[in-house]
Amino acid sequence: MSELSKKIIKWHKESGRKNLPWQRDTNPYKVWISEIMLQQTQVNTVIPYYQRFIERFPDIEALANSNEEEVLSYWSGLGYYSRGRNIFKSARLLKEQFNCSMPSSLELLESLPGIGRSTAGAIRSLGFKKQAAILDGNAKRLLVRYFCIKDMIDSSKTINKLWEIAEAQVPAKGCNIYTQAIMDVGSLICKRTNPQCDVCPLEDDCLSKQQGMQTLLPNRSPKKRKPLKKVYWMLLQNEREEILLENRNTKGIWEGLWSFPEFKKKAERQDYIESLKIDYELIEKDMKLKHSFSHYDLDIDLISLKVSKMHNLENNKAWFGTRNIMKVGIPAPVSKILNK
């Protein structure tokens, strides 16, 4: 067992997280759901979503017997919705091919939609207590600093090197404790900014600490400025206080979710309103909202109208009341507006 492994396993026994919802009465299914939710999302944000999700879908069979729309309704607000779609696709495959059981093989796990090399390693290690390496963001940062790797962390050369190092650290016994420990030390101590070196179990051996470089690593390639996308939304409310939403049935970041009718130009939105040929009352105009994705920023211009009876809706549009709006998946900015 490496010195790194020994020290963080010892630390975890005394100070590591052991009572997160997915750590209690755990199994490979719960590890899988939690690991997917924790991608790009902080633990405190995930906890209530995870609890609601597991209450509704306690096992693979319950998940596979549902439908994508319901699954996405439990994902609403968590973002990165392809994760929710992939979970449902994987559940169907697990039902058809594995009799509603998670495979323990890394190769089979990675064959499922949305499960990459690190997530497969976490499921195998934490769920099955079998040897496997992980390389999530926290583990990468910790290993880069511990071994003082100065190359760009996002280069394929560095990633390959880190995988070699990560696999060499995994102990034969207690691999599940080691996996949770490296996640915890990376998340709680070896933070992206202001690492807490004075309480780190690896302080004495950390090469970047010895060289005074712990706050300078990891090195990353310069970020490109994200493009800005401008869209025009329309919030229509009828006499029964229902809201008109349209289903995003085309490929895209919100595929399968229900959102406000969207237009690329302000004039197109106004033309649509006039084409309805119904009475309407302007409630609010020029409402502004910004939403950020990993690859671009969204600049939203929203107009709110109250309309009289409206017939002949397009197939992808429907009225939603307070109750049934909770049964479908809606993007975070739509949820934010509706809460207002």
Reading off the top of the CATH hierarchy, the class of the largest domain is best stated as Mainly Alpha
Largest sheet: 4 strands, mixed
Terminal CA distance: 54 Å
Q: How large is the count of helical segments? A: 14
What is the CATH architecture descriptor of the largest domain? Orthogonal Bundle
How would you classify the quaternary structure?
Answer: single chain
Number of individual domains: 2
**What is the molecular shape?**
elongated
Q: Measured on Cα atoms, how large is the radius of gyration? A: 24 Å
What is the H/E string? HHHHHHHHHHHHEEEEHEEEH
Measured by DSSP, the beta-strand proportion falls in: 5-15%
CATH topology of the largest domain: Endonuclease III, domain 1
Q: What is the count of β-strands?
A: 7
Roughly how much helix do the residues carry, as a percent range?
A: 40-55%
The secondary-structure class comes to alpha+beta
Mean pLDDT comes to: 93
Main-sheet strand order equals: 4-1-6-5
pLDDT < 50 runs, ≥5 residues: none
Explain this structure to me?
The chain has 340 residues and is an alpha+beta fold. The protein folds into two domains: 3-210, Hypothetical protein, domain 2 (Endonuclease III, domain 1); 228-339, Nucleoside Triphosphate Pyrophosphohydrolase (Alpha-Beta Complex), CATH 3.90.79.10. The chain is 42% helix and 14% strand. It contains 14 helices and seven strands. The chain has helices at 3-15, 28-38, 43-56, 60-64, 68-73, 82-98, 106-110, 117-128, 137-146, 156-169, 175-189, 207-210, 266-275, 332-339; strands at 228-237, 243-247, 258-259, 262-263, 280-292, 297-307, 317-320. The strands form two sheets. It has a four-stranded mixed beta sheet. Strands 3-2-7 form a three-stranded antiparallel beta sheet, with no helix packed on it. Strand 5 (280-292) and strand 6 (297-307) form a beta hairpin.
